[in-house]
Specification:
Number of strands of chain B: 12
CATH topology of chain A: Translation Initiation Factor IF3
Strand content of chain A: 25-35%
Radius of gyration of chain B: 21 Å
Helix content of chain B: 40-55%
Strand content of chain B: 5-15%
Distance between the termini of chain A: 19 Å
Number of domains of chain B: 2
Structural class of chain B: alpha/beta
Order of helices and strands of chain A: EHEHEE
CATH architecture of the largest domain in chain B: 3-Layer(aba) Sandwich
Shape of chain A: globular
Strand order of the largest sheet of chain A: 1-2-4-3
CATH superfamily of chain A: TusA-like domain
Largest sheet of chain B: 7 strands, mixed
CATH architecture of chain A: 2-Layer Sandwich
Helix content of chain A: 25-40%
Oligomer: heterodimer
Order of helices and strands of chain B: EHHEHEHEHEHEEEHHEEHEHHEH
Shape of chain B: globular
CATH class of chain A: Alpha Beta
Bound molecules: pyridoxal-5'-phosphate
Largest interface: A-B, 15 and 16 residues
Strand order of the largest sheet of chain B: 2-8-7-6-5-3-4
Chain lengths: 80, 376
């Protein structure tokens, strides 16, 4: 069911916590229900913090892929 | 509550901004740098405002640094660029009519051994791009010219000045506190590396501002500490203030600019037709929609302003910052006026709520006061 083609992308490489979570959530709020967002975040604190804070607000983390010291996170926006 | 015509000094907070500030103040509990849920919630307010402000000048979110206002942003640029520059590069260029937060910072740097060129302006307050270009040397690291002047409203040709700087590899800063939301700003078009913005001139809260820093440009922070704002500005976020700043930008409307321009010109015309010897300080065109700086021959500006004040009409005497001193405005002197001419001047600045009826009352009072003052 989960298509891996994102509707929107957000590059948050180098953006610290919790700014990265905040910007991801703002982006998701502006998207349609069920739409897919791809976010690039750093390894370390960001990958530990961003996925849980996104899920806390009811969005779903569909995929996490590591490429070097970055992560590509695919998120499905929650249905309203 | 009287008639307030000193909006270049500061503006009343818009009710929509006040509610946003209050809403965030009551709801956002966390420190916007904390990683827990409450922190993320506070950070969302900051990031929303950042997106709005970045969008308003065609910048990226990462290029916006929140500060405590125009003064801090201006200090950060001058001191931050100079302190990172190599030993051979120790020259900056500013105009003679910059705000005190630029001029006094430049003087302070001068005492520390930096050389400063103060580019002069013409009779209307215009800085010429070719004069700036001529002032550049191999040692120049930074040029700082305001987008629009706070006393006369003169709009400077920053795009041309920026181009001259870019061609010579010199960083360019524009202080846009007065022009923000009144005339378009586009960082991709206007060849700027830094822009100073603040909230309280646009019906936002006092003590909040921003600095645009072009991606890739290095600058040292003024404040060291918790490393907020990509280490460029430490200090716990003023969450509600920043949210209010974002709101003020969001609701700013070009219709207001059009309305103020019409009222501004109507007011000038009424005064010139009814009072003898009224002269406009600054240009007819290429001037901010809300500022009228004028001189009334053989009438002391301070006495006129004081008389208006007695009648509950507030206007500016020179710059708001120099109104407690009796020294004539450095801006008016730079336009080529002598002290007497500068002292015959007042600044009237409108806001988006100013009504024609109010300006009519001001005209009537000014006619009366000028007649009285000229009799003695
Ligand atoms: C052109 C200009 N620059 C800078 C400032 C200083 O800004 P702030 O009052 O936010 O420190 C002002 C106004 O006060 C101004 O008019």
């Amino acid at each position: 069911m989960d298509s891996c083609q994102p509707d929107e992308k957000l590059d948050l490489a180098g953006v610290p916590c919790p700014q990265n979570s905040a910007r991801t959530l703002i982006k998701l709020e502006g998207m349609d229900s069920g739409a897919m967002l791809e976010v690039i975040i750093d390894d370390g604190e960001p990958v530990k913090n961003v996925p849980p804070s996104v899920e806390e607000e009811g969005h779903r983390v569909v995929e996490k892929v590591r490429t070097g010291d970055r992560w590509k996170i695919l998120i499905r926006r929650r249905e309203e | 509550m009287g008639i307030y015509l000193d909006n270049a000094a500061t503006t009343r907070v818009d009710p929509a901004v006040a509610s946003e500030v209050e809403r965030v103040r009551r709801s956002a509990e966390g420190n916007a740098s904390s990683i827990h849920q409450h922190g993320v919630n506070a950070a969302k307010h900051i990031e929303k405002a950042r997106n709005i402000i970045a969008g308003s000048i065609n910048a990226e979110a990462e290029e916006i640094v929140f500060t405590s206002g125009g003064t801090e942003s201006n200090n950060t640029v001058l001191k931050g660029v100079v302190s990172l520059s190599s030993n051979e590069k120790k020259h900056i260029v500013i105009s003679a009519i910059e705000h005190p937060s630029i001029i006094e910072t430049a003087r302070w740097l001068e005492e520390a051994g930096i050389s400063v060129t103060y580019v002069s302006v013409d009779r209307d307050g215009f800085v010429s791009a070719s004069d700036v270009e001529k002032a550049l040397t191999a040692e120049t690291v930074l040029v700082s010219i305001m987008h629009a002047n706070n006393e006369t409203g003169t709009i400077e040709p920053i795009k041309d000045i920026g181009r001259a700087c870019t061609e010579r590899g010199v960083l360019f800063h524009a202080d846009a506190c007065q022009s923000y939301t009144k005339i378009p700003l586009d960082v991709k078009e206007q060849n700027v590396d830094f822009i100073t913005l603040n909230a309280h001139k646009i019906h936002g809260p006092k003590g909040v501002g921003a600095l645009y820093v072009r991606k890739g440009v290095k600058i040292a922070p003024l404040l060291h500490g918790g490393e907020q704002e990509a280490t460029l500005r430490s200090g716990t976020y003023n969450t509600e203030g920043i949210a209010g700043f974002g709101k003020a930008v969001e609701i700013a409307h070009t219709d207001d600019v059009k309305k103020m321009t019409e009222l501004r010109d109507w007011f000038s015309k009424e005064l010139s037709e009814n009072i003898e010897g009224v002269l406009l300080n600054g240009p007819d065109t290429q001037r901010l929609s809300n500022i009228i700086n004028l001189r009334i021959r053989s009438v002391d500006g301070n006495r006129l302003a004081a008389e208006l004040d007695r009648r509950a009409i507030s206007v500016g005497r020179g710059s708001s910052c120099s109104s407690s001193k009796s020294t004539p405005s450095h801006v008016l002197l730079a336009l080529g006026m002598d002290s007497k001419e500068a002292e015959e001047s007042i600044r009237i600045s409108l806001n988006k709520w100013t009504r024609k009826k109010e300006l009519g009352i001001v005209v009537k009072n000014m006619i009366e006061i000028v007649t009285e003052l000229r009799m003695v």
